[in-house]
Design goal:
Helix content: 10-25%
Distance between the termini: 54 Å
Oligomer: single chain
Number of domains: 1
Number of helices: 2
Order of helices and strands: HEHEEEEEEEE
Shape: globular
Radius of gyration: 18 Å
Structural class: mainly beta
Number of strands: 9
Largest sheet: 9 strands, antiparallel
Length: 171
């Protein structure tokens, strides 16, 4: 009788320690989420800057940071494309850690933060707390010349993403 009880307690403890959004951003598998805003959405949100956004989670490329943190990258296109010859114009990466039922992500330099939460109907919500994205590609851990500020208000506070189609990788 003690063995099943001990196993149940261990399983409950493991579940309690699991990080939020493991199903959407698995610890051992790549996952990409994306949203391309159509003309109708952008017309109804005339001050929204972001026209396309992709969240990239590549645990095979980026090891855990310890203390429950892991790295993700955001790739962004604004309404006015800066570089039409590549997939994404801007990028920002950050370390994400559990925060309530979601994740709080912060770059390693002063470039804002965002939250990732489970959205309705299988979506993934990114709640922008005000970010600064660097031109893509840019690898240094600082704000680059040509970086763009994307404040949450008035229309970039929430980006609702779905699983991306196609390959999941660095842009």
């Amino acid at each position: 009788m003690r063995l099943p009880l001990t196993a149940a307690i261990c399983c409950l403890a493991a579940l309690a320690q699991a990080r939020p959004l493991e199903r959407e951003l698995p610890p051992a598998r790549a996952a990409c989420w994306e949203r391309v805003y159509d003309a109708a959405h952008l017309a109804s949100h005339p001050q929204q800057k972001v026209a396309r956004i992709r969240l990239v989670h590549l645990p095979q490329n980026w090891s855990e940071t310890g203390q429950g943190g892991f790295y993700v990258a955001l790739y962004v296109n604004l309404r006015q494309r800066a570089k039409v010859d590549q997939s994404f114009d801007y990028q920002l990466g950050g370390i994400c850690k559990a925060s309530g039922r979601g994740l709080r992500c912060v770059p390693e330099w002063e470039a804002g933060s965002w939250r990732i939460e489970r959205g309705p109907n299988g979506a993934l919500d990114i709640r922008n707390d005000g970010i600064i994205a660097n031109p893509n590609p840019y690898d240094a851990e600082e704000i680059a010349d040509g970086a763009v500020r994307i404040p949450a208000k008035p229309d970039d506070g929430l980006w609702r993403l779905s699983p991306a189609s196609g390959p999941c990788g660095l842009e």
